[in-house]
């Protein structure tokens, strides 16, 4: 009688050996956590073939059984939450505490349950007594999902859970910076899924490019840069795969005149600095009316100087490192350029090498204007430029001048005035007195160079479905 030794941890189950794998560093210390498998285009082809073979049986289970399985997966995520959060914290860098690693794992369970429990019914689109037309939502087939490194588990769930619920199978390509987190998440999912329904391919950019053009995929979901999104659009023309693209954002916030700064300060800070500023829909440039400008700058700077930053596994820290060297260099370049232009660095403005190689102090930059690289480019790090304005119409025009339009926010004591300004801003979501707050029932997606298509709730389920009209 033979026996099989079960892996002691999720990490043990997903890692390759040193000889064949790629070392993945701890974001804070740069020490090797483990070795990720190195998959190839041939592995991708095999995964797509397996997914296509598994898809008819998975679809045939029906909504009820697929929903039951997804709820069981949500239970499994919660049962393994701390192990998943620790791995995520080490690989991505976000602390366990605050709106960070434990929060992200909890969101994975919540979004999986939402995908399971959202009701999808045929829609009667025409009926006159003699004729009736219904709109049904059928599986597309195989979904290719390409994810980012900033919220690797949560954004993967946004792609995976709705696709599975609607009867599709999924092949996921995680970021090269955070493959372990997504492999671990898939390991938990696959404890409840038939073979071939969900596969992670931890490959390089060549594999990512092959996904975009793969003839065996019916849908591509991508979260990442606008430049890469454009390449995916071009590649997908060969197979006419449907697309959901959540691309970069240079989100603007507008603080209206005479706003109570003390009432908004905490939400304003986290709108800028959640995940140490490494969030597509975080606040990247803040336009503040002259009447409250100095007060807003002082409030943000005071919080930036005192917010605990350090290694994610150390209790109490709520800000972590920049996840990788390439992005660290972007942050440092943009702040140095702003300083050289004469902008005033009120807090931070330099690395924090005593904390680790890629830590950069939470930074508030004042007396800066449009045209500076820090304002015009997406910094994707712990930095916020604060721009003074005197005319609201001018602030709206400057907010809209960006190529990107993912999110935006308006801050005011007057809700009616805030909504009136929000309606004039070109963005997929405009928040009032908050920024970046997401809800699994509320559709989310960008405009302009920030992509197209919606995720979450019933809109997200329909986006991973093939609409079919049945007329009689």
From TrEMBL:
<dbReference type="InterPro" id="IPR016162">
    <property type="entry name" value="Ald_DH_N"/>
</dbReference>
<feature type="active site">
    <location>
        <position position="246"/>
    </location>
</feature>
<dbReference type="InterPro" id="IPR044086">
    <property type="entry name" value="LUC3-like"/>
</dbReference>
<feature type="domain" description="Aldehyde dehydrogenase">
    <location>
        <begin position="24"/>
        <end position="469"/>
    </location>
</feature>
<keyword id="KW-0560">Oxidoreductase</keyword>
<dbReference type="InterPro" id="IPR015590">
    <property type="entry name" value="Aldehyde_DH_dom"/>
</dbReference>
<dbReference type="GO" id="GO:0016620">
    <property type="term" value="F:oxidoreductase activity, acting on the aldehyde or oxo group of donors, NAD or NADP as acceptor"/>
</dbReference>
<dbReference type="InterPro" id="IPR029510">
    <property type="entry name" value="Ald_DH_CS_GLU"/>
</dbReference>
<dbReference type="Pfam" id="PF00171">
    <property type="entry name" value="Aldedh"/>
</dbReference>
<dbReference type="InterPro" id="IPR016163">
    <property type="entry name" value="Ald_DH_C"/>
</dbReference>
<comment type="similarity">
    <text>Belongs to the aldehyde dehydrogenase family.</text>
</comment>
<protein>
    <submittedName>
        <fullName>Aldehyde dehydrogenase family protein</fullName>
    </submittedName>
</protein>
<dbReference type="InterPro" id="IPR016161">
    <property type="entry name" value="Ald_DH/histidinol_DH"/>
</dbReference>
